[in-house]
Amino acid sequence: MNILVVNPNSTESMTRKIIETANRVASAGVSVHGATAKGAPASIEGHFDEAMSVPALLSCVRAAEDEGVDGIVVACFDDPGIGACREIATGPVLGICEAAVKAASMLATSFTVVTTLPRSVPVIERLIHGYGLSHQCRRVRSAEIPVLALEEPGSNAREKILEEIQRAIEEDRCEAVVLGCAGMADLTAWLSEETGIPVIDGVSVATRMVEALVGCGLKTSKINAYARPNVK
Amino acid sequence: MNILVVNPNSTESMTRKIIETANRVASAGVSVHGATAKGAPASIEGHFDEAMSVPALLSCVRAAEDEGVDGIVVACFDDPGIGACREIATGPVLGICEAAVKAASMLATSFTVVTTLPRSVPVIERLIHGYGLSHQCRRVRSAEIPVLALEEPGSNAREKILEEIQRAIEEDRCEAVVLGCAGMADLTAWLSEETGIPVIDGVSVATRMVEALVGCGLKTSKINAYARPNVK
Amino acid sequence: MNILVVNPNSTESMTRKIIETANRVASAGVSVHGATAKGAPASIEGHFDEAMSVPALLSCVRAAEDEGVDGIVVACFDDPGIGACREIATGPVLGICEAAVKAASMLATSFTVVTTLPRSVPVIERLIHGYGLSHQCRRVRSAEIPVLALEEPGSNAREKILEEIQRAIEEDRCEAVVLGCAGMADLTAWLSEETGIPVIDGVSVATRMVEALVGCGLKTSKINAYARPNVK
Amino acid sequence: MNILVVNPNSTESMTRKIIETANRVASAGVSVHGATAKGAPASIEGHFDEAMSVPALLSCVRAAEDEGVDGIVVACFDDPGIGACREIATGPVLGICEAAVKAASMLATSFTVVTTLPRSVPVIERLIHGYGLSHQCRRVRSAEIPVLALEEPGSNAREKILEEIQRAIEEDRCEAVVLGCAGMADLTAWLSEETGIPVIDGVSVATRMVEALVGCGLKTSKINAYARPNVK
Amino acid sequence: MNILVVNPNSTESMTRKIIETANRVASAGVSVHGATAKGAPASIEGHFDEAMSVPALLSCVRAAEDEGVDGIVVACFDDPGIGACREIATGPVLGICEAAVKAASMLATSFTVVTTLPRSVPVIERLIHGYGLSHQCRRVRSAEIPVLALEEPGSNAREKILEEIQRAIEEDRCEAVVLGCAGMADLTAWLSEETGIPVIDGVSVATRMVEALVGCGLKTSKINAYARPNVK
Amino acid sequence: MNILVVNPNSTESMTRKIIETANRVASAGVSVHGATAKGAPASIEGHFDEAMSVPALLSCVRAAEDEGVDGIVVACFDDPGIGACREIATGPVLGICEAAVKAASMLATSFTVVTTLPRSVPVIERLIHGYGLSHQCRRVRSAEIPVLALEEPGSNAREKILEEIQRAIEEDRCEAVVLGCAGMADLTAWLSEETGIPVIDGVSVATRMVEALVGCGLKTSKINAYARPNVK
């Protein structure tokens, strides 16, 4: 089974981290292919960055489709271009926000999302409203760190995230935490150990859930919304 | 007051129709500027077309911002790239779906949307869910006509739309109808006359609503979600 | 174009302020007609006041209809008697709560309402639930001032409102603020300047939105819910 | 225990039917007091009639409060003026729509409402949305009969209602039916027998539910929304 | 009229308190029959306890049905096994959570629930979501006391509950309070007096509401969801 | 990795079919353990059957926990006892309804569920409401066949299911179909081929999704709702 994990921003170090994360959880026999959305913004912080990343993301998907990929993970927590990807893909396509919050809803009755910047909070709230999980989402919080700070070795990003999770447990009475950025994937195990509750990283979960759907022989529906694009 | 009305697809005849429609309703003293998203797909029929149109749409918005535009209408019923436009715009930005369904909710307790192709139905349903108006939307129907058929003089598009509206009144018991495509704008008056109920075209309504917001001195909020894009 | 702006309470000083506000934003060629609901309570603070104001409000609407008014604004944030007004009106009818929260939802992903008394908070929450915008409304707050204190020159009402807005920005992380009383209309510009976020006054917005609907040739639907009252 | 059952329209024959219905179900020791909203419209068919009935309804409530009534039923399915009544009442106040749909939700997982005229359908849908029971309400149907036809001995109203209920069972797969007009109260037993499913009349249910609340020592909350009207 | 009030846990002292409460509010002519779910857990604190209590609860219901009971109250705030009870019952069946929150929604625009342990909070939130009353429920709070502490004479349970209610009034701005455990029934009058707002105990309210439904001749629907169990 | 797949009814032929299905999709290295809820009803058709099956189901879970199982699938579409299982389990627990509808929501914008008997329709609708996916579920349909007919070689169950799916595509305009009974698992591939849309079987999907969660190192949250049962 071949799974494409695309990083929709153009920061290669992030792609490497994402591929490592996906490989760590992938089943035996599953081949993880990474891709970086060349020409996309260096990080996706808001609607504009997201919109500008999608054409490059779609090129990655097209290329992988040509090579017969079985399923696709879009590794940015804003779930950019998912509908468009689903139109051009044959197999399942999952964004890491959708995968992570749906996983959280299976492990706990409530969860809080901890993301990077305040400007991403309403974006994520809207996604969760669309996924129908607002009633299980206690709150979307930001740790007030830019996405790329997660890539800087000396930054205090991990401490700030841990503190925000501890506040979430205390103030939101949440039972699980979802990490709201692909760049946090490498902190998952440590954060879970420190806090004692499920800490969910979308990259791992999306990789394994796409595997799950492919393993059941399921593909993206090709009638109506996700039918292949009309030829003009 | 200067208002930009962008056609996010690349079909110039559609841009002309949209500008005419906007000019027909614009108040004295309001200058309507049209723009076509060059390089975008010829019509927007689904998520892929939508995603591919947004960068060109954003260029139009950037250019208009540089010239000091006061407000912006995005003239495609899928409301593409609205969040991204709002980040780079100073004044209000409105998609024609949002404008039309919110107008409908002010004139009637329920409405039905009549759009072009079946594949657009779930896209529009999702938008309306996001706008919080699912409880007033009886149904989203398609008249089963491709977007560009609306531009062909000899097509029977207008009859099919009229028939679909008549079915909506009968079967959905809706009190108003929203036209689910910018390309239907020129049929509004005729359809309203034939059916006796409010028939709402998003291009006109969005133009006048942007005018309304600008006229009240209102601009897009610049904290959090719609703050200007971060410089990388 | 003739627009009626009715004050559903009987305080003439409030009517004057409302008319001034509406005139300040009205387009050239639009004639604003004010009316006071004679015999109604001096202010509308709760359901009882609201109910007692409606027959007088409906008389104002009837009179304006007889003179061929094109659209109507009901200038009380509890949106009293809107359905009844719509039944007897030909053109569009808008309450200032509906207009303001729908405008807010176009300029920001979230907003907080600041109203006068605590007793009005649940009334407004219920309206917003009905308009489908609960998911964008962070909170309805009261500045703990009686409606008529807004008319007293020496009161500290404006300071209390400013402070409440500042708390809303801090605690609710809202991106815009809606003023929850027609009597606050004259403070809008000042509050917006002080806070740097969109501050939305329903009187202005409703006036321009009714203009917008009339300008598009739209009228209140006359089938089902808003059909003319049955003759007994 | 003294319970007021107010008919908010001015048709005395309807008041008599309502009192009879309430008396039929009232517990021993409960005294049912009837009242007619003098000066109100002869029937309540839509928002305008409703608004015009409320001041007269409130007078009936005031008078009963002065005589120490324990609880109040407002016997019109549009639940007119309930909030206002609750402000001036000491004991519980129930509208027959709220009582009936909440009762239905206790006896079945889904119900359909059968009302008189099409124009009342959206009014009732909105009430049910406000009561939070849209997910249990299959549909609101009208039997296409004017309210006062229910008072005419020779009309075929009862047959039309029966037929509409039979269609509801067949098409809506509902498990219970709520009668959407106080004037249908006398048909309940017959309709239930004919159809074999629970047929719920709001007048009976509201009377007994008010009894229930009074019997538990419960009164309307007097903080915030239902506090007594402010003295001006 | 015969009403069964079942305690789904096996603690007899709790059954006695529940029967006393039900008897205190029951109308003249109503005979309250108590039952204890023998073999069930000593208290119901979470999903496991709840599941383990249901078969014993169903035996109590079966036995009462055989003796011709008219209506049934399930006296645990988690509303265990209600659907199953409704399938085997002829008359109405009410859980005390459903009864209490629906009663609260008739007396106030908002309420807070105060329950025993934190682990029950999400259980109750989910119930309220299912009953459609999330928009009126300000918050579900726990007083951090185990269920059986309510049975210990010397515990400070009542003080902790009072304090939690006072916090709810202050912080949640709720207008009524629902007691989230059958074991709190005896504190209702005292708590209501201390706080001045409606304090609602589910046991009393459910008893009188079942009475109300029976008194109107209403029974559980026997088509679809609550039809008698299929014989295997 | 060890995964328990429990059949909560007592029909062994169904357990065998379920185990086969789970084994067909399980990854290399995953060991599927089947269990039958001994003493439970022969099939689960409604709330009563469901309630009576849960204690036996919980025994199976307890036994598997003692042997160190990693994750659990509850293979009945009514998702019986999931909360209780989660309290006593260490790893993830998934019901097949939750797994299937969440999978469907990843592959299509809308789906219809096809179940066995009409009485199960409202049960499933309620589950989907709780999972937050009502807005993507077009309809829950029944093919009007008893659960055990699926086990009879000569029955025309598969044809009836195919016909119901074809009606769903035509009338509901759904983009995917979810099979609403564990007993339909063996028909999935055939139905998908016949209809050309994704047909989703909960047993396969739940097995692979539990694998996915376990593979990511995720376990059921042990604070609040799913904490281990309190010792009495």
TrEMBL record, chains A, B, C, D, E, F:
Molecular function GO labels: amino-acid racemase activity; hydantoin racemase activity
Enzyme Commission number, as recorded: 5.1.99.5
Recorded catalytic activity of this chain's protein: D-5-isobutylhydantoin = L-5-isobutylhydantoin; a D-5-monosubstituted hydantoin = a L-5-monosubstituted hydantoin; D-5-benzylhydantoin = L-5-benzylhydantoin
Domain of life: Bacteria
EC primary class: isomerase
Family classification: Belongs to the HyuE racemase family.
UniProt-recorded name of the protein: Hydantoin racemase
Annotated organism of origin: Albidovulum aquaemixtae
